[in-house]
């Protein structure tokens, strides 16, 4: 175990996280049980015109939930755009999915969500690829999956806390760049934002936090508030999802969940 991980295990933030997150998870399960959401019928999404694969973009597609989602969406007949930080991991993931599903339609793009420059470059390359591919340039699904739980305070090239930029500001920017393509879809399109039950712990929303003054900054010697920062990014992502859905679902065919 590296030193950073050991420091994290010994920090009060870790133990606060362990207790509060377990309680929040329990609360979320009780809510699901109470509302009976688990039994909701599965609806199939409409498809674009005959002969065309719907296109989905999955960020953080090289491991965990993103990788599983990319494989499952390929199985559903989507042309899956896998977006990830490492070109080597992207290559390996594409090879692996292709090995299991030889007829899968896959395309990989490198992007670092903790860099504005990288997101803009990815946005332009993706738009160009979609335009070259389709008469009606559009995408049907964007899965903002990439996310981290940083063990320590790191500043990105844009001068922001790495966890805040990766988990919230980066996906916010990417979604806005890709909105024209989502709106251009002839069938209802969708943005899926990966949040977390831990947003329930992030009740400390004050003006300082919203201006980025509270989290993601700590002076030398102070331990990094990793749990609060993570919870805060997920709360921001949830509020962003609600607001974007409110703005879009009446005026366009885009829904946000
Ligand atoms: N797992 C859970 O129990 C759980 C619960 C609630 C919410 N979530 C959320 O679900 C999402 C996926 O979780 P997971 O457990 O599947 O995580 P994971 O296995 O750690 O995968 C995260 C993915 O995000 C990518 N990523 C990290 N930083 C990035 C960056 N700056 N730019 C581009 N990609 C980046 C990683 O790429 P690299 O491989 O290059 O690092 C990786 O592919 C996250 O948003 C997480 O917060 C997970």
From TrEMBL:
One of its GO terms (molecular function) is oxidoreductase activity. InterPro entries: NAD(P)-bd_dom_sf, SDR_fam. Keywords: Oxidoreductase. Pfam families: adh_short. It comes from the Eukaryota. The keyword Oxidoreductase applies. The keyword DNA damage does not apply. Transmembrane segments: none annotated. Belongs to the short-chain dehydrogenases/reductases (SDR) family. This is NAD(P)-binding Rossmann-fold superfamily protein. It comes from Zea mays.
């Amino acid at each position: 175990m590296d030193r950073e991980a050991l420091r994290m295990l010994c920090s009060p933030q870790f133990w606060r996280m362990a207790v509060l997150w377990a309680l929040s998870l329990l609360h979320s399960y009780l809510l699901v049980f109470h509302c009976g959401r688990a039994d909701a019928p599965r609806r199939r999404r409409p498809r674009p015109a005959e002969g065309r694969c719907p296109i989905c973009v999955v960020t953080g597609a090289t491991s965990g939930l993103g990788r599983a989602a990319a494989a499952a969406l390929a199985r559903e007949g989507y042309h899956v755009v896998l977006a990830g930080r490492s070109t080597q991991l992207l290559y390996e993931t594409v090879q692996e999915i292709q090995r299991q599903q030889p007829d899968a339609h896959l395309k990989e793009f490198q992007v670092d969500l903790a860099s504005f420059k990288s997101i803009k470059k990815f946005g332009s390359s993706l738009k160009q690829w979609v335009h070259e591919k389709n008469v009606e340039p559009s995408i049907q699904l964007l899965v903002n999956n990439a996310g981290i739980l940083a063990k320590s305070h790191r500043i990105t090239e844009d001068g922001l806390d790495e966890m805040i930029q990766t988990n919230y500001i980066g996906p916010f920017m990417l979604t806005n760049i890709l909105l024209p393509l989502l709106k251009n879809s002839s069938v209802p399109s969708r943005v899926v934002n990966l949040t977390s039950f831990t947003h329930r712990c992030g009740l400390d929303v004050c003006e300082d936090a919203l201006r980025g003054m509270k989290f993601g900054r700590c002076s030398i010697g102070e331990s990094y508030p990793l749990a609060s920062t993570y919870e805060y990014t997920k709360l921001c992502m949830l509020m962003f999802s609600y607001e974007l859905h409110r703005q879009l679902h009446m005026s366009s065919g885009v829904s946000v969940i």
